[in-house]
């Protein structure tokens, strides 16, 4: 069963390096290669796939661009972490109307993340709970020591998604938490204090295995964010208008 | 405001072709180039970015691999349709346990798609409704004439997402409707008949601007799919067991 499930890919219309890239992807799957595993060398791949080393090299470049492979100079070519996942996979940075994008993303987050928190409260193990508590503490430390807390804030939301033990949800969260470039200064003292208490409420609800409370506290946290973003947007819009 | 919002990308640690690729992406955004627009030629890009044509060419290959650019032989290099969107952007094909992936994807779909149908019923214009009716008819024609209906079936679900007028939702739907390679034969007569009536019920609810009914009929449609997939999985699992 495992060997055949991906063979129905139709790649005949594609240029040769693309076809070879597809074949290398299939090889990674059928050989069950994992993140950090070494890819066979160019010579071996060339013999296996019956193409020249130039085509192998072009194919590898394509797979590097797609975060399926990583090259470590002098060491070889390896399977990437989270192969196939690129940053900004839906091309949000190319959206013309970044303000509408911000609003639409928030609408999606306010639907999905309370549900995720609810599932997290139902399914979190003791280890999961220890993990979100730890990351919650790291976000607080960032805020109190006036560092940029957004990287750890994102890790916090992904760690909650991990509590669901659904393999899709933790991949979806970074996509919808894409930070729109419009909002530079969401670091008001009021919002930062609200972030700390909002995160603590979510952690407490998940740790208490209280799904309804987890859903409610996550919704409140996002609503707080939404308000702050809309205030920032309105301030900017007023400023833009007055500059005309 | 528009010009500066993406300048804070830190790319200094990346290899030169990656940095040039990032700069070309920024150029596409700041020049407001749209799908189908022509990219400046290698010579012009080289002068603009102060790098050699070899680096430009490598950068263009990276951007082609990421579906940001497309090369039309003899014509030039153009901005792709839906720039930055790749197929399988979350790397689902590299998941080891495709059965768990199928179950997890369904869990996510059953949360998101009824909500999407509800929003669609609230917001659909007459034009939107005409569009989903047309595609619904195309799916039925495929089924009745025994063609593969899945491409139009996917278009149907995306067209419902378009009715929300949320720009994120129609991009998210193709990600979560990723077809796991495990299930070849979901084309039983019973399921196909259920697909036709399920789709019609959804269309009727959206056309009637009945959000509660749209949510309910979409949930029923997905539940029907879930049952069929689980039956197919169990049949396969039994078969695998008996082959051991």
Provide a descriptive summary of the structure in words.
Two copies of one chain form a homodimer. Chain A is mainly α and 244 residues long. The first copy, chain A, is 63% helix and 3% strand. The first copy, chain A, is built from nine helices and two strands, in the order αααββαααααα. The first copy, chain A, has helices spanning 16-30, 42-49, 53-65, 98-123, 126-144, 150-162, 169-176, 189-207, 211-243, and strands at residues 69-72, 76-79. Chain A has a two-stranded antiparallel sheet. The longest helix of chain A is centred in the last third of the chain and has 33 residues, at 211-243. Chain A is elongated. The interface between A and B is large, with 55 and 54 residues.
């Amino acid at each position: 069963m495992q060997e055949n499930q991906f063979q129905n890919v139709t790649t005949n219309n594609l240029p040769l390096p693309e076809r070879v890239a597809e074949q290398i992807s299939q090889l990674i799957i059928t050989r069950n290669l994992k993140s950090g595993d070494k890819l066979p060398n160019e010579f071996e791949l060339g013999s296996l796939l019956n193409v020249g080393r130039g085509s192998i090299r072009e194919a590898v470049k394509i797979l590097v661009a797609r975060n399926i492979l990583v090259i470590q100079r002098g060491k070889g070519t390896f399977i990437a972490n989270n192969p196939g996942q690129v940053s900004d996979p839906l091309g949000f940075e190319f959206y013309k109307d970044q303000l509408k994008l911000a609003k639409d993303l928030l609408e999606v987050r306010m639907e999905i993340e309370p549900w995720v928190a609810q599932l997290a409260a139902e399914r979190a193990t003791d280890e999961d709970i220890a993990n979100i508590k730890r990351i919650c503490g790291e976000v607080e430390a960032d805020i109190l020591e006036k560092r940029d807390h957004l990287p750890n804030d994102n890790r916090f939301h992904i760690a909650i998604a991990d509590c669901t033990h659904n393999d899709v949800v933790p991949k979806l969260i970074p996509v919808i938490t894409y930070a729109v470039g419009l909002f530079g200064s969401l670091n008001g003292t009021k919002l930062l204090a609200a972030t700390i208490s909002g995160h603590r409420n979510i952690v407490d609800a998940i740790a208490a295995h209280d799904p309804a409370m987890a859903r409610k506290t996550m919704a409140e946290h996002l609503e707080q964010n939404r308000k702050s973003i809309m205030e920032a947007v309105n301030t900017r819009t007023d400023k833009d208008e007055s500059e005309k």
